[in-house]
Amino acid sequence: MNQPKEVRTGGRSARVQESIHSAVRQLLKEHERANVTVPMVATLAGVTPSTIYRRWGDLNVLLADVALERMRPDTEPLATGSLRGDIQAWAEQYLDEMNSEPGRNMMRDVQSSPTKGTCVQILGAQLRIILERHRGHVDQLPDIDRLLNVIVAPVVFRILFAEAPLTLEQLNEQIDLALGQ
Amino acid sequence: MNQPKEVRTGGRSARVQESIHSAVRQLLKEHERANVTVPMVATLAGVTPSTIYRRWGDLNVLLADVALERMRPDTEPLATGSLRGDIQAWAEQYLDEMNSEPGRNMMRDVQSSPTKGTCVQILGAQLRIILERHRGHVDQLPDIDRLLNVIVAPVVFRILFAEAPLTLEQLNEQIDLALGQ
Description:
The structure is a homodimer.
Chain A: H1 12-30, H2 38-45, H3 49-56, H4 59-71, H5 83-98, H6 101-111, H7 117-133, H8 144-161, H9 168-178
Pfam families (chains A, B): TetR_C_11
Keywords (chains A, B): DNA-binding, Transcription, Transcription regulation
InterPro entries (chains A, B): Homeodomain-like_sf (IPR009057), HTH-type_TetR-like_transc_reg (IPR050109), HTH_TetR (IPR001647), Tet_transcr_reg_TetR-rel_C_sf (IPR036271), TetR_C (IPR011075)
């Protein structure tokens, strides 16, 4: 009983987490998110509500955790043959995904997460894959923070706080600016 | 009874709105926001809950409305004598304000607003005042969207989704980029 928590990940604890995540995903398909409760998740996952409260504290943190997990892309960014092309394909897909109902919900949930920094890590990892493909073939690679600040940030900002999302033309202007073109 | 709603603004309707806004501001000082309810606001403002539901639909929209109202700055942006200086002073103050507990709450509320575009309008109006000061003295003025996308967006994005806000150094890099320097 004195084992540190980490020892248990990968075993029972990982299975419990997966069944709770999976219950949340299923409930979000069938219900308005405002109607989903911790007891509903617990019943469907076959655990007690206190298991959920102990691990996540409250429902918002659990939803944020599921949202972050969903954010991890299944596939590598598309390879188009050029740095500009790879970034553009990735950014257009990102704009498209975030500008959807699930994308907006995900952004809302992730803001409640105590580990919201994971968001930038996941995006940064995707961009790093693209940059590494072109290392040695491009004079000067932009840094990840520049790409996040100049391309990702306005996509997210406009979706959350403006009347309309970035147009593809505006997105391309931001890409040019980030790549110094 | 057939008068259009607009006729009444500025009179009784404006006074009712102000007393409801003021009740919200007072309650948010005294309570956790999760504990503030429509009946509490109604009691303090001296109206019935249905007055609030009729006008705002639900508490989130009312909170968003109050947050947008608070966002309107009381004063013009500081005049430092140069375009770069004015933008920098404004951006540093904006970063500071948004990176506070009230700033974060405001951003969270505004996202629920059906008129969240007001956010970009208010920021745009402030930036326009700065640009107009320097019209004729600067070769080419940047456009407002460029300033919003390159300076404001990463400030907001990093506060909401990263481990840490932009540093002043990073903010200055964004300002240089936006001004083409």
